[in-house]
């Protein structure tokens, strides 16, 4: 009987099924997409983490490393097969420096051989090319011993060098981020496991280890908990056993969690709103189905069927349809989510169906179930006789429900905006994402009330003017049973869609703004660290026009520091004069160059400093040191010149580093280290003055021109004199700069000491321009001249990153030219890359979900409204036939039908537009866009009017077309002959 | 015990915020097995009275007994039960009485569901109404006459003691109408069913044993064995039949003259 009934009402049933399927699918898309987005987040986090942040190095001195590692990874299906290894360390006879002796599975594939072969037998080793060993050499390690066959004593075991290796790629994750190479004599030696078993470790032990990575190709968002448990187990192993698990997975997990938290709350709100919208649509449509069964239900009641039986009878059809819609909707949601994921997320992201999918699908269905129950209740309890009255006693739509919903929406809005009910971990107000839904619903309700009232007012006018078409249209809009519902549904759906489009376009603009400033220029090439002057020189050769690229050294701060070439920056840097008080980048950059004096260059083998000084205090050690910048090295080198001696001073000389013989080194500072006895309470000091500098090269000593001097902490002292003390020790420096660092200042760093390239905060910054945003800065900081900063700093801090900013459309040519100049480009990052990265963060993914789903829901709402209006108009077939019979022109009837539909749909759509724009104005600035909101630049939140106009315009055009088609089809079905049926 | 007893029934409903008195002080007693035609102009309250008798409405005032049971004292469940076991109803429009996509037999069975499905009775009823060979045909594909006969069969599905029919012949030709009336009379004669039929059709009213005319919500007249009588109402009110309005127009004044077995009304000119 149920199936027959559904077939009898197949058109309506199909519509209900469709309208039930789409919200279920839309709701189901959310969890599927969110799961995929979580997978994207965790995989991105793994991909971008350093090697040691991608897994664990499980080390043990126990016997069963394989068992320990197996227990550690048990239950984790996403780890790579472990790579096992063993190592010990030892000095060499007569050399205290420690070097590792190790073996790691598959090591030979990761050690490019310069000469020789990989070790294959016990006692064979592979040594670093930089170590100075040669193939055939015998290496003796103090701790690796063997029994002398003659004496029985333990003697260092001879290890024979069978090959030399060059350091492999620095980013080779095989080594788990370890720095085993590059130090020359202490580079690791590689052998085979048999060496361990044929020798004894004396004074040190062999450590076994297994390296396990999280495989990003198999890792999913659902594994986050397992990852956390493994990390906890790793930390516990260090505490509770002798095993040591080294990993920076905790940092990676922290990044993952921040991102997934930033995704989960917005995604939940988006899904909740879509489920709510689905409820609204289902509430209207399923109710239609129950009402369409009104006569049958009345017959059941007439025949004395009990209340329960009547309820079941009324609910059977809608419940069957909804039950059918659930699997269909889930399948459709899975397909749609798959398409979205394929289009928006990286490849290879699996499309899973998490349990939340089913919950969301069923939750979306519950709206229909409630609607069916509500409609069935009304149909089952209203007087049966109403079903058969010639003129049903229409009941006015109550205000109570509307008032309750409006009150809830208003309270919710006030609560959300004033208090922020839901705040995610990043401090952004995820609750703002609930604003569009509440506002759209409220506006839809008000518009649904206002339209009939307005039509009623205009209705009077059309009695006198405008003809029968507008008269009938307005009368129907004013009295029509579907007007309010349609306006509410359209207003809510298009409110959400307008907000989604607005938020999307504004967010895209914000992403681009942030990315442009943070990247500094269209493309930023990350390079290996190098000495600033060498970097500048290399770039001068790679880009001789000085128009394509700028060298940049960045320090994270706070405050942050970006040092660059001002002239080049003016050509390539991203800048917005409006964010810098109208100052152009060229003008601001030009002001970064300060007053300069010549640097002190030392080229030769030996340095001599002539010094006049007081007698060093008794019991104190006074060691004279100079600080040098050596070509090719970013960090300074201190060279001791000896202990102070005598009462008046003298000449102090020491060898310069070998590199200074080929290229000039720069004298950066002179100071005396004064160390007293531990129990000394007095604070002696002594005055010193540099009276001369000389360098010896092959031709003998060359006296250098005395430079202008300055003293850190006492800049006025320029005679080469300074004070050595245990409390306030001074440093004498060549005065190569003006004593302040001119800077473009972002944020409240003005007047403070500038961090400097060495992060020593040696000199204050001098503001030459105040900007709200500057290239390369993502927080408060300064942008300075690289040359100035280099003169001020002793060296470059190890935490600095080195970049080349360029505007080149194709940076490969520049990269090639840079490589030719010895610059190693590690990676390239474009503004688009950053934008894509932001879009791939939790909030970006949630907004994408909102956009796609809201547009789908809006299209559905429009379709539902067209059908509802069509159904309502069809019910008036007799009336139209009677009007035609009484002489009304078909054109007037057509106009009436079209106007009625267009007015209703346009009112709903425009109400949605207003609600959406209002929501954007109120909530856009609070909607989470970034996992970590940037401190600078300010976000413009500019809504692109084009896409919003496109959505609304398309909706209005579709309304017009639908109205025309529906009107025509209805009019073709209106025949005067139907009036005969009106007797019935 | 009477099959139907109305005692001062008043029915008021609200339409467009205006209270409308559909029935006022209706007193009516119908004996078991009687066939009664309810007559009267449109809007007089006939259908409302029928719905009251069917238990579909509860009277605003007054008391109603069906087979000795006071309807006003029944809760909804008992009322449903009473309706399913004691009352059969034929609605005005034949199509309204049936579910179009169900077969004739299923329609009759649907009416039996509240009590007990009796397939033999279904077949018997369809045979009685002349639809014995159409049991499997969907009701929606039947003609108006066939649907009306099926409606009678549906109304009789549970062997009701009270059969209510609202304009059962209004959309039928004379032959089909006569057949439907025969069915109603047959039910009364065969099963002792009391029938109350709202009709405008003189042929129907003449075919039934008694007529009750409702005017302005009151019982205005009754007819028995071909003779019409005015009914003296609860407050002594008497409705002058329309055919005498030219002698005693509404609004005119009359003098009452008692005679041995009643009174005479005489119009006065002052």
Task: Write up this protein.
- The complex is a heterodimer of chains A (984) and B (270).
- With 984 residues, chain A is α+β, with helices and mostly antiparallel strands.
- Helices cover 46% and strands 20% of the residues of chain A.
- Chain A has five domains: 1-49 and 267-395, no CATH class; 59-64 and 80-218, no CATH class; 407-517 and 833-984, no CATH class; 529-596 and 739-823, no CATH class; 601-734.
- In chain A, the strands form five sheets. In chain A, strands 27-26-28-14-13-29-12-30 form an eight-stranded mixed beta sheet. In chain A, strands 8-3-2-10-1-11 form a six-stranded mixed beta sheet. In chain A, strands 15, 17, 18, 20, 23 and 25 form a six-stranded antiparallel beta sheet that branches.
- In chain A, helix 6 (249-292) packs parallel to helix 21 (842-875).
- With 270 residues, chain B is an alpha/beta fold.
- Chain B folds into two domains: 4-239, Rossmann fold, CATH 3.40.50.300; 245-270, no CATH class.
- Chain B is 27% helix and 30% strand.
- Chain B contains seven helices and 13 strands.
- In chain B, strands 6-7-8-3-9-10-11 form a seven-stranded mixed beta sheet, sandwiched between helices. Chain B has a four-stranded antiparallel beta sheet with strand order 2-1-4-5, with helices on one face. A two-stranded antiparallel sheet of chain B has the order 12-13.
- The A-B interface holds A 1, 4-5, 7-8, 295-296, 299-307, 309, 383-385, 388, 393, 983-984 and B 13-16, 51, 54, 56-57, 76-77, 80-85, 87, 89, 91-93, 95-102, 106, 110-111, 113-115, 154, 157-158, 171.
How are the SSEs placed, and which strands pair?
The complex is a heterodimer of chains A (984) and B (270).
Chain A: H1 2-8, H2 10-48, E1 55-60, H3 65-73, E2 83-92, E3 95-104, E4 113-116, E5 124-128, E6 138-147, E7 154-165, E8 189-190, H4 193-198, E9 200-201, E10 207-213, H5 224-240, E11 244-246, H6 249-292, H7 294-302, H8 307-344, H9 355-381, H10 400-418, H11 435-464, H12 468-479, H13 483-519, E12 523-527, H14 532-542, E13 549-555, E14 560-564, H15 566-572, H16 585-590, E15 601-602, E16 606-613, E17 621-629, E18 637-643, E19 649-655, H17 659-662, E20 665-675, E21 685-697, E22 700-704, E23 709-711, E24 721-725, E25 731-734, E26 741-746, E27 765-771, E28 781-785, H18 786-792, E29 801-806, H19 812-820, E30 825-830, H20 831-839, H21 842-875, H22 877-885, H23 890-923, H24 945-973
Parallel strand pairs in A: 3-8, 5-7, 14-28, 26-27
Antiparallel strand pairs in A: 1-10, 1-11, 2-3, 2-10, 4-7, 6-7, 6-9, 12-29, 12-30, 13-14, 13-29, 15-20, 16-19, 16-21, 17-18, 17-20, 20-25, 21-22, 21-24, 23-25, 26-28
Helix pairs in contact in A: 1-2, 2-6, 2-8, 2-9, 2-21, 5-6, 6-9, 6-13, 6-21, 7-8, 8-9, 10-11, 11-12, 11-13, 11-23, 12-23, 13-20, 13-21, 13-23, 13-24, 14-19, 21-24, 23-24
Chain B: E1 4-15, E2 18-30, E3 35-39, H1 46-53, E4 61-66, E5 69-70, H2 76-86, E6 87-90, H3 104-112, H4 119-128, H5 144-155, E7 162-166, H6 174-191, E8 194-198, H7 202-207, E9 210-215, E10 218-224, E11 227-230, E12 254-259, E13 262-267
Parallel strand pairs in B: 3-8, 3-9, 6-7, 7-8
Antiparallel strand pairs in B: 1-2, 1-4, 4-5, 9-10, 10-11, 12-13
Helix pairs in contact in B: 3-4, 3-5, 5-6
